[in-house]
Amino acid sequence: MCCESKRRFLLLYATQKGQAKAIAEEIWQQAGAHGFEADMHCISEMDKYNLETEKDPVVIVISTTGTGEPPDTARKFVKKIQDKALPPDHFAHLQYGLLGLGDSEYMFFCNGGRTVDRRLQELGAQHFYDTGLADDCVGLELVADPWIDGLWLALKEALQLQKEKEGMNNAVSPGLSSLSTAPRAVHELKLSSEVQNLKLEDEGARGSDTLSQKVGDINLVAPAKDTKPSLVHSVPPVSQSALNIPALPPEYIEVEFQDTLGENPHLSSLISEGTTFEVPVIRAVQLTREDAIKTALLLELDIADTAFEYQPGDAFCVICPNNVSEVEELLHLLGLSEKGDDFICVKVKRGTKKKGASRPQHIPERSTVKFILTWCLEIRAIPKKAFLRALVECTSDVGEKRRLQELCSRQGASDYIHFIRDSNVCLLDLLHAFPSCKPSLSLLIEHLPKLQARSYSVSSSNLYQPGRLCFVFNVVEFPAGPSRPVSRKGVCTGWLAELVASLLHASKNSLDTQGESSLIEKISIFPRPNNAFHLPVDPSVPFIMVGPGTGISPFIGFLQHRQKLREQHTDWEFGETWLFFGCRHQDRDYLFKQLRCFLENGTLTHLKVCFSRDSSTAEVAPPKYVQDVLRICAKEVARVLLKERGYFYVCGDKKHMADDVSDAIVDILSVEMEADKLEAMKVLAMLRETKRYLQDVWS
C-alpha cells in the first residue's frame, strides 16, 4: 500500500450539538491508517462538494434534533434533495453509507438520518454499506464503534468495484453491482471486527493505540481489597487487559493571554439560531408546597416591548450561564484562579494536524477566561472518549493514567457507560477523582461542547395575556453519588431559581401578587416555534390533553386561548375539551387548582385528575396515573379519536409517562374497535402520521 496513493471518499456530517462532527472527525483521523483520504465537510457547505457529480463513495454522519427533524446544519441540504422535480435516477451514480444518531427516548428515533437515507434511495442512490443507527440513550459508541470498524473493508470493496467497472467501460450496472456486494462486505466486516477483538495485541486496529500494562502497574489501579469496580478503580478482566484506545486527537487551539482590557461579547453573538430578546422577569410563583418532592416554579416575562411572537404550544429557549461556584472551582483546579478576569485571544494552533481546523463558532476570538467558562462551554457535559484520551496525556500519576486509558478503551466500554455516562459525570468530577490530571484551557475549548440554551414550553396565550409570556419548570436536582461528590441543581433551572429568589419571597403571601422587586432581573430568550403542537385550526374539533406534573404547562396556554376565543366569537361552534392531569399529592403539587375556573366557564368540558402518592380509604382504590384514568374513560376517548376525528396531545416525561399513555391508547383502540393490538397500533401510527396524536416530551 505504501506505493499507492491514498484512496479518496467524501465524508459529510450534519450536527446540532457537535456529536456527529466528533464522530466524523474520528473517521477522518482513522482513514489515513487504513489507506484512505477523507474529504470532510459539514453538509451545509454545499459549495465545497457536489453530490450530482460525485464519483467516489460518500459517508454521511447525521444527528436528529427537536421532534425528529434533521439538524439545523442539514436543513438546506434536505430541502434541496426533497425537491419533487428531481427524477428518480438523480443520484443513480451515488454510492453511500450513512450513520444516523438519535435517542430512543424520543418517538422519532434517528429520523434525521432516516429522512436523508430514504430520500437518497428514492433518488436512485445505492448503499455500499448498511445504514447504522446509534442510540444516545444507551451510548452512541455501541453502534458507532463497530460501524466504523466495518467501514474500511466496505470502502475497499466499493472502490475496487468502481475500479473494475471503469475498466469494463461501464458494462455492469452500477446499481446492481453495489447491491450485490454490500451484504457480503457487511458480513465480512462483522467477522473482521470479531477477529480484531480477539487479537488485542495487534497494533493499529481501527487506527487506535494498543497498550500493554504490567501486573505491577495494574496493582496501582486496582488494589486487591477493591472487589468491585468504580470510577477510579478497575478489576479483572479490564485491569489485566491490553487496551485498544482511540488515537490521540490532534491539538488545534492556542490560547494567548493579553494584558489589555476590554469588554466581553454580547450574549446575542453566541446564538446562531436567530434573534435574541433580553426581557424582564416580572413575576415568580412557587406552585408546589415546601414539602413537595419537586419544586415547581412559574415565571412571567414581559415581552410587550419586543417583537417576540408565539402561539400556545410553542417552545422558547433561555440562554443560561454555568453555575458561578462551579466556574470558580474549575478555575482553581486549572490553576487559573488569579486569571479569571484576564482577556485571552483564541486562535488555531500553527501546524496543527487537524483537518480544516477553525476556532469553534461558540468561542469568541477575544474574551475573558471566566466568560468562556461561564457562557460558552458546557462544563457539565459528559466527557466523550476522545476527551478522556486527551486527558490521559495531562495526567502524571501512573494509576490514574491507566484508569483513564481503560475508561476510553474498547475493553472498558462497560465501565465507561456505568461510571461516566449513566452516572452523569462531568469534568469537575473527573478532576476531583483524578487529581494529577491538569488539562489546559485550550484542551477544554477543543473538547467541551457549546453551552446549549435550554428549551421550555410556553404556558400562556398572547391573546389572553397580551405582552406576557409564562413558563413552568421543576428545579432539577442531581443527588450526590459514588462518582459525584456533591449534589447539584440543573444548570438553567438552578440559575433561574436563584435569579428570582427575591420575587419568590415577595409572592409568598398571594398567588395573585406581582411580586415586584426593586431589582428587575432580565433573561435572554429566543423563539423555537413548534410546527405541530398547536390547537386544531378548526375550533369545532374536540381534543384531549394529557399532562401530568409540569406537562400541564402548554395546556394552560391552550385553555387561556380557547377561553378568549369563546369570549370573542360567541357564534362559533367549539368542540369538547378533555384534560387528564396527575401529580403525587393533591395538597402539595396540584400545580393549577384554578383549572376549576376553566371547567366552570365552559372552556374545559372534562377535567380528570389523579394523585399517585395519596392514600385512600375507599373500597375501590382510585386510579393513580393518567394512563389508568384514560382506560376508565376508554369509550369517550375512542369516540373522540375515531368517530369525531379529534386530536390527542401528550406533554411530559417520556420514559415514565408518555410511553405508558401510548400503550393505554393502543389497548383502548383495540378493545373499542374489537381488533387485535397490531391493528390498533396501525391506527395509532395513522394518528401520529396525520398529526392528530402529538407529543411534547422530554427524558
TrEMBL record:
Subcellular location, record wording: Cytoplasm
Top-level taxonomic group: Eukaryota
Residue ranges of every copy of the Flavodoxin-like domain listed in the record: 9-152
Keyword Nucleotide-binding among UniProt keywords: no
Reaction it catalyzes: 2 cob(II)alamin + A + 2 H2O + 2 H(+) = 2 aquacob(III)alamin + AH2
Keyword annotations of the record: Amino-acid biosynthesis, Cytoplasm, FAD, Flavoprotein, FMN, Methionine biosynthesis, NADP, Oxidoreductase, Phosphoprotein, S-adenosyl-L-methionine
UniProt cofactor(s): FAD; FMN
Record InterPro entries: CysJ-like_FAD-binding, FAD-bd_FR_type, Flavdoxin-like, Flavodoxin/NO_synth, Flavoprot_Pyr_Nucl_cyt_Rdtase, Flavoprotein-like_sf, FNR_nucleotide-bd, NADPH_Cyt_P450_Rdtase_alpha
EC top class, as a word: oxidoreductase
Its EC number(s): 1.16.1.8
GO biological process: cobalamin metabolic process; folic acid metabolic process; homocysteine metabolic process; methionine biosynthetic process
One GO cellular component, as annotated: cytosol
Domain FAD-binding FR-type: 274-536
Keyword set includes Oxidoreductase: yes
An example Gene Ontology molecular-function term: FMN binding
Pfam family for this entry, one: Flavodoxin_1
Main location: cytoplasm
Subunit field text: Forms a multiprotein complex with MMACHC, MMADHC and MTR.
Protein name as annotated: Methionine synthase reductase
Organism in which the protein naturally occurs: Cinclus mexicanus (American dipper)
Gene: Mtrr
